[in-house]
Amino acid sequence: MNLAALHHVNWLEYREALPDGRLRIRLRAAKGDLKEVTLLYVGIYSKERYFNQFNRQPMFLRAQDQVHDWFEADYLPDDPRTCYLFEIKDQDKTLYFDQEGIKIQTNFDSGYLGINPFPYAYIWQTETTPAWARGGIGYQVFPDRFRRGGESVPGLEPWAGGKVNNAVRYGGDLKGITAAVPYLAQLGVDILYLTPIFLSDTAHRYNVYDYYQIDPLLGSLKDLKALADALHARGMRLILDGVFNHSGTLFPPFVDAQKRGADSPYAQWFCFDNSQIGYQTFAFAKYMPKLNLQNEEAAQYFLKVGRYWIREAGIDGWRLDVSPEVWPDFWRRFRKAIKEEKADAILIAECWDISREWVSVGDMFDGTMHYILSRAIWKFFATREINLQQFDWAVNHAQMLYSSGVNQAQWVFLSSHDTPRFLTRSGGDLTRLRMAAFFQLTSPGVPVIYYGDELGMEGEQDPDCRRPMRWDWVDKNNSTLAYYRQLTGIRKQLKALQTGDFYTVETGEDGLYAYLRDGEQPVLCILCTDNATCERSLTLPPAFANAKKLYDWISQSAIPQAKGKVSLKIAPGLTYIITENKYG
Question: Which CATH superfamily is domain 3-123 in?
Fold first, then answer.
């Protein structure tokens, strides 16, 4: 037994209070090392604890990656003041694992104190993220390149395909986005995310000059309100991009601080230093001076900015740019301010790496842009740098980084304004795009579609990934758009695809990938990822043990089964979404 690989902490993703009152406990071990794991639990103040009379709950193998197994168990305690430990077995040993380490005894001392506590579990705030933000369908828009709706402005580039750069404007605006709301509704969108809309001299607007003024090329506060109203009328939400890590060089406080130096009341708003340009920046972009939100006056300014757009425009939350480089205490204050303004608003962090400290506690962000998972999607579906087994390991690893509640709010995307478009990564292979879209729209989290991906748009690394939207491709003959609409429609009908837990069922050598989305009505997702063409059987997971009739939502037909197995046709890119019977 590899004792050094055993890992559990009384916090974060290893211990979760579920909305229905159950507690979810995880244990990590070396892959293939443990034969059996049992969760032992009891009330902290119960007499049973003092007589070593523990309740027993078998733990099941929840997930595997290349080197680890994760075991998991849910239980409903009699008393919210509960505690627990693990009984672990390999081929010839039984040991006990608690917060003090490994123990061999089966009869603990009276009043045993080493056991892991989970006090007052029922009072613990489990749902810090609103229901609408978990498992919905998102859509990202780069405003200048999405759609024109206002009056023509001199000097704009023609609305056409081809490579682009950041120096030109195409004239997309808020009125144009509002005009496209019916299109977004047909696509099944629940959450619309706009990259920055505030005054700036660039097309991307990440160098903000005035946080209280919408760039006139995009429109006005009235136009933003109209967009929010149009979305809300259809049950959709609006998220803006908050750039509070840095500003633009024409942001008035920065202008004053540069001009007056230490005499400026804004001198401490920025990170001035002895470097060649005299101040710190975002990355190495000297036109984006870094803000110092440890300064109270600066912090107050941006707390008010966050509140203002919630209150005045009716937006539903913020995506926060370069979140890990901002003082964490500011984000805690920002969350408190935003939640006071609108209790069900959400905050999404731009984090490119593992982000437990930003999302797991519930005092800063509801979710992140889940680049950990997106990179695995690119490496498997787009470039084939990894095989199916390695991809599944990466998916499970990404799932185990966070609690199930956090996973439901993570933004999962194939492309963004900062990355090459998926279709370009895949060499223009539409089958690979559709396979990736299938996984994106049937896996946990919030699938965020980057504008135009659903049409088959291409684009190299930023800024070329920001080409104008190809509205001329929106017609009945666009099979990629039709496939996206089919998948989003199915996802909206099946609750398990929105918030169900993810379990690997099979990673076949022939490229067949099967996984379960668990829930009251479980869903079996099957994706043929390789070039094999044949027929083969698949053993149904235990969730379908009592199923009598199966239905495939992709082909809209019944799936025959016999003795716990289904017979499937295998062909490149072929997919199945299977439930018991058909339900809506």
Answer: Immunoglobulins (2.60.40.10)
